[in-house]
Amino acid sequence: MSVTTAPVRPSAESVSFTAARLPRFAPALVGVVAAAAAGLPVLLLGWGVVAWAIVAGLVFLVALPLWARVVEGSRGATDRLVTGLVWAACIVAIVPLVSLLYTVVDRGLPRISSTFLTYSMYRTSLDQEVGIYHALIGTLLITLFAALISVPIGVMAAIYLIEYGKGKRLARWITFLVDVMTGIPSIVAGLFAFALFILLFGPSTRVGIGGSVALSLLMIPIVVRSTEEMLRLVPSELREAAYALGVPKWRTIVKVVLPTALGGIVTGVTLSIARVVGETAPLLLIAGLTTRTNFNVFDGRMTTLPVLIYTQNANPGIAETAGGIRPGIEIAWGGALVLIVIVMVLNLAARIIGKIFAPKTGH
Amino acid sequence: MAKSITVDSLDIYYGDFLAVEGVTMTIKARSVTAFIGPSGCGKSTFLRSLNRMHEVIPGARVEGKVMVDGQSLYDAAVDPVAVRRQIGMVFQRPNPFPTMSIYDNVLAGNRLNAKKMKRAEADDIVERSLKGANLWNEVKDRLNKPGMGLSGGQQQRLCIARAIAVEPQVLLMDEPCSALDPISTSAIEDLIHELKTEYTIVIVTHNMQQAARVSDETGFFNLKAAGQPGHLVEFNSTQKMFANPDNESTEAYISGRFG
Ligand SMILES: Nc1ncnc2c1ncn2[C@@H]1O[C@H](COP(=O)(O)OP(=O)(O)OP(=O)(O)O)[C@@H](O)[C@H]1O
Ligand SMILES: [Mg+2]
């Protein structure tokens, strides 16, 4: 950069910040050309749409950087190539999701009706309408009680880990056990709850709260982990500010630390609910199966949506017309759609709640 | 009733790291004591050990004695919460509570301790404290807006208002003016002059003129060498410190001949 090299460099006055760039529509143009070019061999060889998309993508990933290399130089080419790869990865990740959503909506939506959502499977004659009301109630109640068990335990465990247990042996053990719990297969959690309730209340016990216990085993580690992360993000300066005002530690935690982290904690809890609301195996074991609506989690069997989907799919019954869709399959698709909607609503709620509780800035 | 603080051969550790070594001094009641010294020499660390804020950091501990009005601060029977209620602190970096409005931030010391008070009384405390910190005129129309929405300097004055709202006996200030403009700085200095009639004030500053302007006594901290613990080089009346200090390095530091 020294002055002596000036002859090889443009002098200060004539430095130019502009460089040759591809036109803005270049990616679109290359995209269209690549799609067309890929169409030819695919048509000739008789491959399907998927192969066509893959070939078009590869052509695009080669053509655009090559063009950019000629016009913009090697940095432009690398930029185009990496941008293309990132986009490709993104599309690959999203395609299955979109396809899944589309299939569920496509198959499930026709089955959704007010009867479907407000009738249970219980019927006294074969021509009566059936619905998933009992499973909906079962899912909501069992998950609610699972949350009532896990949130206090999880949040308090996280408070202990972050605020009190730093560096203590007990804290290290809890962290280790929480990590192990994160990896527990859900069927094992179900077996645990199953064994627990059979030991306590005798054989062939099936109650909704047993399902809640099994789900809370899966939820607690998620709640602990997410709450821990949120508490860690609360700056120690805030705690010190409270201490310096003569505020005891427990009040500092309750009135300063928790409110500051509340948005994140609530989001974490909501996401953990979304995570367990679709559990099937443990509920199949302990909550049992019924066709009636049961509002009491402490007494009697309860069906949940995932269990309903599983059983309807396993025993779909006989189609009314030969070659038609069997009724159980239809119910399963409808139930799947409702379940996905519940999870989506929970996710949206998590975002909104996170926004509402986030510490406010600005004037 | 203001309190005097007597420190006797105090060593301050972060885990095994000895940050400040062998400090002995007496901080007079109803006066302003300033600490000066190069960055990293342990001024903040020492200040925090005066109201037991130091031990909040895991592994941090002190050895030696700190006496406030004849009571040893580090006695086993002493409740650090009670100490901090009497000895307030303003931090080097502003730290308003992000979930609270400006109004609630000023009242935080009372509210967080669940102290009951009437609305009029609360309004009065808020107005008095904010006026004391020279912030009232800027925020009086938006007291219910979040405290984080203020500028850095305004946030610092908010923290000063919060600290004086609980009327502590001793006020420790760690570079309270480092983020402030000259007008706010002089307002804070006026405030310090005012508070001095009733409170004991200890202030850390990098601004020599400020130390000379506001303080009655000055302590100069320094590192013996890089990697060595900080120590108190000289502690004298401010007049003497700035006119003819006992120690050569004090004079060198004050006159700006070394950093
Ligand atoms: N939390 C901590 N953990 C470990 N060491 C620390 C911690 N805080 C400060 N120290 C160390 O203690 C010594 C004194 O730091 P201190 O913050 O008291 O300096 P200071 O005099 O206030 O400096 P400045 O003027 O830059 O604020 C430094 O060596 C610093 O690295
Ligand atoms: Mg400091």
From TrEMBL, chain A:
InterPro entries on file: MetI-like (IPR000515), MetI-like_sf (IPR035906), Phosphate_PstA (IPR005672), Phosphate_transprt_permease (IPR051408)
Which compartments does it reside in?
Cell membrane
Q: Where is the ABC transmembrane type-1 domain?
A: 136-350
Q: Its membrane topology, per UniProt? A: Multi-pass membrane protein
Spans traversing the lipid bilayer: 25-44, 50-70, 82-105, 132-162, 174-201, 207-224, 256-277, 331-350
What does the UniProt keyword field contain? Cell membrane, Membrane, Phosphate transport, Transmembrane, Transmembrane helix, Transport
This protein's major location comes to membrane
User: What is this protein's function?
Assistant: Part of the binding-protein-dependent transport system for phosphate; probably responsible for the translocation of the substrate across the membrane.
Q: Which family does it belong to?
A: Belongs to the binding-protein-dependent transport system permease family. CysTW subfamily.
Any idea what this protein is called? Phosphate transport system permease protein PstA
Q: Which organism is it from?
A: Nocardioides hwasunensis
What taxonomic ancestry is recorded?
Bacteria, Bacillati, Actinomycetota, Actinomycetes, Propionibacteriales
> Coding gene?
pstA
TrEMBL record, chain B:
Q: Which UniProt keywords apply?
A: ATP-binding, Nucleotide-binding, Translocase, Transport
Q: Does the keyword ATP-binding apply?
A: yes
InterPro entries documented for this protein: AAA+_ATPase, ABC_transporter-like_ATP-bd, ABC_transporter-like_CS, P-loop_NTPase, PstB-like
Q: Is tRNA processing given among the entry's keywords?
A: no
MF terms from GO for this chain are:
ATP binding
Q: Which domain of life is it from?
A: Bacteria
SUPFAM superfamilies, alphabetized: P-loop containing nucleoside triphosphate hydrolases
Please give one Pfam family short name: ABC_tran
Q: In this protein, which residues make up the domain named ABC transporter?
A: 5-248
Q: What is this protein called?
A: Phosphate ABC transporter ATP-binding protein
Lineage at the top is: Bacteria, Bacillati, Actinomycetota, Actinomycetes, Propionibacteriales
